[in-house]
Amino acid sequence: MSMEFLVATGVGMVTATGIYLMLRGRSFPVVLGLSLFGYAVNVFIFLMGRLWTNASPILVGEGPVADPLPQALVLTAIVIGFATTGFVVELALRSRHESGSDHVDGHEPGGPRA
Amino acid sequence: MTGGLTSFWLQHAPVLSVVLPMLTAVVLLLIGDQGGMAGQGGAHDDAPLRWRRRISLASAMLGLLMAAGLVQHAATGELLVYRLGEWPAPFGIVMVVDRLSALMVLLTYLVALPVLWYAAGGWDCHGRYFHAVFQFQLMGLAGAFLTGDLFNLFVSFEVLLIASYVLLVHGQGRERFRVGVHYVVLNLVASGLFLIGLSLIYAATGTLNMADVAQRLAQLQGDQLVFARTAALVLLVVFGLKAAMLPLYFWLPGTYAAASAPVAALFAIMTKVGVYSIVRVHWQLFGTEAGGAALAVADWLLPLALTTSVLGVLGALAAHSMGRLVSYLTVSSVGTILAGVGLFTPQALSAALYYTLHSTIVIAALFLLVELIAAQRGEAADNLQPAHAVREPVLLGVMMLFGAASAAGLPPLPGFLGKLMVLQSSSGLPAQAWVWSVVLAVGFLTIVGLARAGVIVFWHVQPATHAGAGGSSPRLLAPVWGFMALTLVLAVMASPVKRYTDASAVQLSTRADYVRAVLGSDAPGRPTTRDYDGRRAAPAQEKQP
After folding, report:
1. What percentage of chain A carries pLDDT values higher than 70?
2. Which chain B residue is nearest to residue A81, measuring alpha carbons?
C-alpha cells in the first residue's frame, strides 16, 4: 500500500511541476515542463503494468517475472520523447532568433508585436 | 508475371502502402537537397530539383494506384490482415485493411497528389527537403489508417506529426516559427496524454491489439471498467485536439493560415486523422457492444461536435483574412462530421464518412485557391480589405463560387448530399432537433461568410495603382480544377460511394467478424490473454503475454 501511495504521489508531483512549467511564458521553462511531463508519463506507463517487488525484469530461470510489455512501451516512448524534445529545443531557438524574443508569443509582453 | 505480381501485392498490400513512401523519402534524402531560395543561386529548374519532383510525384501516383487497389479489395468485404514478421496476433503487430482504412488511405492520396503537383510549381524550393518530409508525412498517415494496434497508432501519429512540424515551418518566416512552437508544444502534450490513455487501456485489458481490446472491453467489470472509461475520455481529448474539436480547436486557424498553401491543403487531411481515430476507437472499440464501457463518450461527443460547428462558422464570419476563413470552415466541417459520428448509428456514421470525403477535398481546394487569389491582390494578399482587382476576376471568381457553393452545401454539389445524409440519418433520434437546426444554420452562415469574402475580394475593388501581377500559371490552376472535378465525381458517383460508406459503417459495427479476421476463427469468446500475475502458465495454457 505505502509503495503504491509513494509512487502515485511522486508521479503526481512531477506531473504538476511539469504542467506548471508548461504554462510559463518563456520557451525554456515550457521545454523543461514538457520533459518533466514526459518523465511522469513514462513512469505512469510503467506503473500500468502494476508494481512488482522482488521480481526479475526479464525472463530468467524460475520465479515471478514483472510484466515485460510496459517496459517495451516505455522504451519506445522514451526514444520518441527524446527526439521530439530535441526538435522543440531547436525550434524554440530558431523562433527566438527570428522574433528576437524567447516569449512563446514571439514578442515581449506589452512590447510591440511587429 | 502479372499474376505473380498481383498475388505478391495482395499478400503484402498493407505494409507496402507504408513502405513505399518511406523508401521514397529515404531516396529523396540520399539525393540530397541544396535548397536555395528562388533567385539565390538555386534556380527553380535545376536538374536535381526536377528529379526530386519526378520521384516524389511518381511515388505518390503509385501510392494512389495501390490505395485504389486496397479500396477495390476492401469493397468485397474481406478484411486484409497483415501480421508483421508472422508473429501471431495479438502478440505481434498487425495491420488491418477494412473498408474504412482503405477509404481513408485513398482520400489521403487523392489530396496529396494534386497538392504535390501544386507544390512542384515553386513552393518546394522555398526550403529544403520538402519532398522527403512530404513522403514521411504520407507514411505516417498511411500507417495511422492501416494499423490494427493501438500503440502502433501512437507511433504513426508521431511519424506524421514530426513530418507536419517540419512542413508547417516550410518556407520559414517569423509567423510560421511562432505558430510552429505553439503547434509542436500542444501536440507533444497531446502525445503524452495519448500514452496515458493507452496505458490505462493496457491496465484494463492487458492488450493493445485493437481486435483483442474490442473483445476484452465487453468482459470488463469493477475497477477495470473505470480504467477503460477513463481511457476513452483521455483519448477523446487527444483525438479531439487533432480533429480540432471544441474546446481544442483554438490552435488551428492561426496555424493553418500561417502555413504555406500546399501544406495547409495537405493538413486538411490531418484533422481527419483525429476524426478517423475517434471513429476507430470510440465508435468501433467503445461502441454499442462494449459492455459496461459502451458509448463511454456519447454524452460528450455530440454536444461538443455541434458547438464546434457553430463556433467554427462564427469564426469564419469574423475572419479578417481568407486563410483564416477557410481554416475556420475546416473547424466547422469537422464539427458536422463529428456530429454524424456522435449519433452512434451506422446510418449517421456512413453519412459522416461521405461528408468527410467531400469536405476534405473542398477545403484543400479552397486553401490552394486562396493563395492563387492572394497572389493577384498585391500587398492586400488574402486580407479581407478592399484592394485592386484581381487579374482574372472571371476565372478565379467562378472557382471561388464553385468552392463556396460546395463548402456551404448548395444542391446539387456533394456538400449538399453529405449534409442531407446527416440530416436524414438523425431523423427519429432524440437529438434530431439539435442536429437539424445546427447543420442548417451552419450551412446558411457559411454562405454568408463566403459571400462576404467574395464581395470584398471581387467587387469591392479599387483602381489599380500599378500593373499588378501576371495571371495564374496553368500549372497551379490544374490541381484546383482537379479537386473541383473530384467533388463533381463525388456527386455523380454518390450512389456507389454511399453504398461503400454504408457497408463500412456496418462492417465497423460487427465486431465479431473483425475479431475473427485478426485473431483467428475460434477467437470470439475465447480469452487470448489472462491477467498478468507474474507466474508462468502451466504447459496446457501455451499463450503467455
Report:
1. 96
2. B188
Chain B residues close to A73, C-beta within 8 Å: 151, 195, 198-199, 202
What are the contacts of A6-12 at 24+ separation with CB within 8 A?
A7/A43, A7/A47, A7/A51, A8/A47, A10/A43, A11/A40, A11/A43, A11/A44, A11/A47
**Looking at chain A, which residue has its C-alpha nearest residue B193?**
A41
* ipTM of this complex prediction, to 2 decimal places: 0.94
Q: Which of A19, A21, A45 to mutate to test the interface with B (most CBs of B within 10 A)?
A: A45
Give the Cα separation of B369 and B363 in Å (integer).
10
Q: What's the pLDDT tens digit per position in B339-387?
A: 999 999 999 999 999 999 999 999 999 999 999 888 888 777 788 888 8
- Output the CA torsion sign for B141, B143, B145, B150: negative
Of all helices (H) and strands (E), which one includes residue B414?
helix B414-426
Chain A contact present for B155, CB below 8 A: yes
How many CB atoms are closer than 10 A to CB A26?
A: 15
Q: Which residue has the cell 439539435?
A: B434
Residue B168 zone, left/alpha/beta (φ > 0; ψ -120 to 50; rest) = alpha
What gap in Å lies between CA B487 and CA B474, rounded to an integer? 20
Q: Which residues pair with residue B95 across a beta bridge?
A: B82, B147
**In the block, residue with C-alpha cell 530468467:** A60
CA angle B465, B468, B472 (to 5 degrees): 155
Residues B16, B66: contact at Cβ < 8 Å? yes
Partners of B191 on chain A (C-beta within 8 Å) are: 80, 84
Rounded distance between C-alpha atoms, residue B350 and residue B179, angstroms: 35
The alpha carbon of B6 is separated from its chain's Cα centroid by a whole number of angstroms, namely: 28
Smallest CA-to-CA distance from B79 within B526, B528, B520 is with B520
Q: Residue range A11-36: average pLDDT?
A: 94
Taking Cα atoms as reference points, which of B103, B145, B160 lies closest to residue B356? B103
Contact call for B195 and A45, based on CB within 8 A? yes
d(CA B400, CA B297) in angstroms, rounded, equals 38
Q: Tell me how far apart the alpha carbons of residues B483 and B161 are, in angstroms, rounded to a whole number.
A: 25
**Domain boundaries of chain B, sorted by first residue:** 297-463+472-510
Contact A102/A26 with Cβ under 8 angstroms?
yes
Cα separation, A110 vs A98, whole angstroms: 19
